[in-house]
Design a protein that fits this description.
Blueprint lengths: L1 E4 L6 E2 L4 E4 L1 E4 L2 E11 L4 E9 L4 E3 L11 E2 L3 E4 L8 E10 L7 E10 L1 E2 L4 E6 L12 E12 L4 E6 L2 E2 L3 E2 L27 H10 L12 H10 L5 E6 L12 E8 L5 E11 L1 H4 L3 E7 L7 E6 L7 E5 L3 E2 L4 E7 L9 E6 L11 E2 L2 E4 L10 E8 L2 E8 L2 E2 L18 H18 L1
Parallel strand pairs: 2-12, 17-19, 24-31
Antiparallel strand pairs: 1-4, 3-9, 5-6, 5-10, 6-7, 8-9, 10-11, 13-14, 14-20, 15-16, 15-21, 18-30, 19-20, 21-22, 23-25, 25-28, 26-27, 26-29, 29-30
Length: 435
C-alpha cells in the first residue's frame, strides 16, 4: 500500500525559512519522490525537486530554485528564505514499484498551500487637490489620502486625530475607472481674499459664506488701494483667518480601496473627507495607522495641518541694476506647512513686467528690469486650505553704468563735454591767477 499526506502550513512572512514535509507510508520499494509547484489554477505543474531512488540522487529542475532547497530524509524540501513568488499550492508525488511487475509504478500524492505574507514597505499621508486656495468666506471640503504599498494581503487602514480614533461614515467603493481618493474637489478660488477691502470683508461676514461674486474689483477701489500701498514698509506679513464659524462637530467620511500590483502585493488607499474648519483644524495632528498580520505592531504616518506663517523671501541680485534679471523666491516659512501652499505673485497697483495680472509659483522672474520698476512693490500670497499669508517686498533698481542713456556715449557722457569742461575750468583758473 501507499499513502501520502502533507501537514497544512500556517501563513509565513517573506524571508522566513519554510519546510515542506511529505509524509508517506508504504511497504513497497521506492522509485521516486517529486515535488511540484502548481500555477495557473492547477493547469501547470512545475517540477522543483526530484529524488531518484534508483540512483539515490536528488536534483532541482529549475535554475531559479538551485541552492534554495535541500531534500531532507528524501521527502522534505526546505526553502531558506521564502519570497512572495513562492506563494501558492505545492504537490508531493511518491512513486513505488508494483509488486507484480517491476515495470509498473504506483503513484500517490498530497498537496499543501504555502501562504506567503509581506508587511507593508511604505506608508504616506498626503492631501488631495493640492496646492489649493484658502477661502475665509466659504467652507471647503478637505481630503486626506493614506497610501500603503508593498503589503500582502491588503492591510487594515484607519485614521486618528490627535491620537484618538476617528469614527467615520464609510463610503462605497467608486466604479472602475473613477477617481478613488478625491470624493469632491476643493472649491476653486473665486477671488483673492487678501486683496478684499474692509467694506467687502464686513459684507462677507454678514453674509456667512457668500463670496464676492466677481474676481474684478470695482473701478473705484483701484485708487483707494494705490493710496494705501504707499504706506507699506519694505516687508509686510499679514495673515488671514476664516470669517465663518462651523458650529457642529465635523462629520468624517471614509473610503478604503485596494489594487493588486504585479509583484503580488497590494496597494491600499484610504481617504478621509470632511468639511474643513481652519479655526479648529489648524495645528490638528492626523495620523494614518496600518494593522497587518505580518507586523508585530501598527505602522503609522502622521501630518499636522498648518497654515503658512512668516514666508522667507529672497531677491537676487541683492543690488539690482537696470537690465539685470531679478529673481524673487520664497525659500520657506517660519513653520512646517501642510498641505502644500499655493503661491501667487502680484504687483501692487499695476501689472507685472510681462503684462499679466498675476503669476503662480514659488519664484517670480523679472527679465531685464527697466529703471521704471524702481520702488515698485510686489506681493506674494501664500495660501493653503487652512489660511493665507501676504508678504510684500520692494524692488530697488540702481542705474547701470554699462548701459548708455539716450544720446550719451558708451561711457554715459555726452561727446565733447568732458573736454569743454576741462578747458573752461583751466581758463577760469588762469584768469583768476592773472587778476
Amino acid at each position: 500500500y501507499l499513502t501520502v499526506s502533507i501537514e497544512p502550513l500556517p501563513p509565513v512572512v517573506v524571508g522566513d525559512a519554510v519546510t515542506l514535509k511529505c509524509n508517506f507510508k508504504t511497504d513497497g520499494k521506492m522509485r521516486e519522490i517529486v515535488w511540484y509547484r502548481v500555477t495557473d489554477g492547477g493547469t501547470i505543474k512545475q517540477k522543483i525537486f526530484t529524488f531518484d531512488a534508483m540512483f539515490s540522487t536528488n536534483f532541482s529542475q529549475m535554475e531559479n530554485y538551485r541552492k534554495r532547497e535541500d531534500l531532507v530524509y528524501q521527502s522534505t524540501v526546505r526553502l531558506p528564505e521564502v519570497r512572495i513568488s513562492d506563494n501558492g499550492p505545492y504537490e508531493c508525488h511518491v512513486g513505488i514499484y508494483d509488486r507484480a511487475t517491476r515495470e509498473k509504478v504506483v503513484l500517490a500524492s498530497g498537496n499543501v498551500f504555502l501562504n506567503v505574507m509581506a508587511p507593508p514597505t511604505s506608508i504616506s499621508v498626503l492631501a488631495a487637490d493640492t496646492p489649493a486656495p484658502f477661502s475665509r468666506y466659504q467652507a471647503q471640503n478637505f481630503t486626506l489620502v493614506c497610501v500603503v504599498s508593498g503589503g500582502k494581503p491588503a492591510p487594515l487602514v484607519y485614521f486618528k486625530r490627535d491620537g484618538e480614533p476617528i469614527e467615520a461614515t464609510p463610503l462605497p467603493e467608486p466604479p472602475a475607472g473613477a477617481s478613488s481618493w478625491a470624493p469632491r474637489s476643493l472649491l476653486h478660488r473665486d477671488l483673492d481674499d487678501t486683496k478684499m477691502p474692509k467694506s467687502l470683508a464686513a459684507d462677507g461676514e454678514l453674509g456667512m459664506g457668500n463670496p464676492f461674486p466677481t474676481a474684478d474689483p470695482p473701478r473705484g477701489l483701484a485708487a483707494e488701494r494705490d493710496s494705501v500701498t504707499e504706506s507699506i514698509p519694505e516687508t509686510v506679513v499679514s495673515r488671514e483667518f476664516p470669517r465663518w464659524v462651523h458650529m457642529a462637530e465635523p462629520i468624517y467620511y471614509f473610503r478604503h480601496t485596494h489594487a493588486p500590483v504585479s509583484d503580488g502585493t497590494v496597494e491600499a488607499r484610504a481617504t478621509l473627507t470632511w468639511t474643513l474648519n481652519p479655526q479648529i483644524d489648524n495645528e490638528a495632528l492626523f495620523s494614518c495607522e496600518v494593522k497587518h498580520p505580518a507586523l508585530s505592531m501598527p505602522m503609522q504616518s502622521e501630518v499636522t495641518l498648518v497654515a503658512p506663517k512668516g514666508p522667507k523671501i529672497t531677491m537676487t541680485p541683492t543690488r539690482a541694476r537696470v537690465g539685470d534679471t531679478v529673481r524673487i523666491l520664497v525659500q520657506g516659512f517660519q513653520n512646517e506647512v501642510f498641505p502644500e501652499p499655493l503661491f501667487t505673485w502680484t504687483r501692487v497697483g499695476s501689472r507685472l513686467l510681462d503684462g499679466s495680472a498675476e503669476h503662480d509659483g514659488k519664484e517670480l522672474v523679472l527679465e531685464r528690469v527697466p529703471a521704471e520698476l524702481n520702488g515698485s512693490m510686489y506681493r506674494c500670497t501664500a495660501q493653503n486650505p487652512l489660511g493665507s499669508t501676504d508678504t510684500h517686498t520692494r524692488l530697488i533698481v540702481f542705474e547701470n553704468p554699462n548701459i548708455p542713456r539716450g544720446p550719451e556715449d558708451s561711457n554715459g557722457s555726452l561727446p565733447g563735454h568732458c573736454g569743454f569742461r576741462f578747458v573752461l575750468a583751466l581758463t577760469l583758473t588762469v584768469i583768476l591767477e592773472l587778476t
